[in-house]
């Protein structure tokens, strides 16, 4: 029997713009998915298409038990975390000797197979943890920083593929408007890299990134309510994380206002998690 766990993720800056080769910054967060795999002569019915695909890819048979601290379809990378943890538990239980890099790549192929399209960001961040700088397909881990966040989940599921297609369509129809927006998102992300230790400025940059995402039409009234409420309650800044159209938002906060910000988001119907960086990535758990 082998139990492994993998973390979720948020986008600090640059979602959607990364699809067009602009830089993005993602960070692994503390909530995890735990997966236990046990050798079995007969596979039990897989709990998800992701898990099924992990077994198909590795060609082994086993039973699986999943426990998750991450809500699904919330833009927090839960499917990537399930996939990375499942592949790692299979790797361990069946002594397949895949490296962490290989696990990250295999997890990306599983996500692509199941979702039709998937970026490698979620699976990379979940495998390696920390803060990851993405630019034109390349990924680099940045030095870890003590970034404290409140995550607010709208509980409205979103379809990343549809939102990505919407932005692509807008870019095609209005290049003279959308390209400067993407360039501005790039500017924000590049400034953001230097502000991880400066929550006030980090928050201000997140607010700008949020306005630009709204301009791309990937907002949602519920996200806007939660973001405005968080700012009103004293957050340094707040924005969508991930594809938008539902899913989750993040807020950077001043410790003095933490409870007020949490209450404000919840009073709009959001579900909150107070979290910070996970710098471990996928890890083996005690059985
Ligand atoms: O909502 P999520 O976690 O699927 O994030 C999507 C991020 C996008 O930039 C919109 C798409 C991508 O592939 O990077």
How would you concisely characterize the structure shown here?
The protein is α+β, with helices and mostly antiparallel strands and 287 residues long. Helices cover 42% and strands 24% of the residues. (3R)-3-hydroxy-3-methyl-5-(phosphonooxy)pentanoic acid binds at residues 15-16, 18-19, 75, 77, 119, 121-122, 160, 164, 242-243, 247.
Biggest sheet statistics = 6 strands, antiparallel
Q: How many separate structural domains?
A: 2
CATH class of the largest domain equals Alpha Beta
Point out poorly predicted stretches: none
Work out the strand percent.
Answer: 15-25%
Structural shape? globular
Structural class label: alpha+beta
Distance between the termini: 8 Å
**Number of helical regions:** 9
What portion of residues is helical?
Answer: 40-55%
**Named CATH architecture of the largest domain:** 2-Layer Sandwich
E-strand count = 10
Which small compounds were modeled alongside the protein? Answer: (3R)-3-hydroxy-3-methyl-5-(phosphonooxy)pentanoic acid
Mean pLDDT across residues? 95
Radius of gyration equals: 19 Å
Pattern of helices and strands: EEHEHHHEEEHHHHEEHEE
CATH topology heading of the largest domain: Ribosomal Protein S5, domain 2
């Amino acid at each position: 029997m082998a139990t492994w766990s993998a973390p979720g993720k948020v986008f600090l800056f640059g979602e959607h713009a990364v699809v067009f080769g602009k830089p993005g910054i993602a960070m692994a967060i503390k909530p995890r998915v735990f997966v236990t795999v046990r050798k079995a002569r007969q596979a039990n019915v897989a709990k998800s298409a992701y898990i099924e695909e992990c077994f198909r890819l590795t060609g082994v048979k086993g039973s699986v038990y999943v426990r998750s601290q991450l809500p699904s379809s919330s833009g927090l990378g839960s499917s990537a975390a399930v996939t990375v943890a499942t592949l790692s538990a299979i790797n361990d239980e069946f002594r397949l000797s895949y490296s962490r890099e290989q696990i990250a790549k295999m997890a990306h192929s599983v996500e692509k197979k199941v979702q039709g399209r998937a970026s490698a960001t979620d699976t990379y961040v979940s495998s390696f943890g920390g803060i990851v700088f993405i630019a034109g397909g390349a990924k680099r881990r940045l030095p870890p920083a003590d970034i404290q966040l409140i995550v607010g989940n709208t509980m409205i599921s979103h379809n990343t593929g549809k939102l990505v297609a919407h932005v692509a369509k807008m870019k095609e129809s209005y290049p003279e408007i959308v390209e400067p927006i993407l360039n501005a998102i790039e500017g924000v992300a590049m400034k953001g890299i230097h502000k991880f230790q400066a929550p006030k400025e980090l928050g201000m940059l997140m607010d700008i990134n949020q306005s630009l995402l709204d301009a791309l039409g990937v907002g949602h009234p519920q996200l806007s309510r939660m973001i405005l409420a968080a700012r009103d309650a004293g957050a340094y800044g707040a924005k969508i994380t991930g594809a938008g159209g539902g899913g989750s938002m993040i807020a950077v906060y001043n410790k003095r206002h933490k409870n007020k910000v949490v209450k404000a988001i919840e009073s709009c119907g959001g579900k909150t998690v107070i979290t910070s960086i996970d710098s471990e990535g996928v890890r083996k758990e005690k059985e």
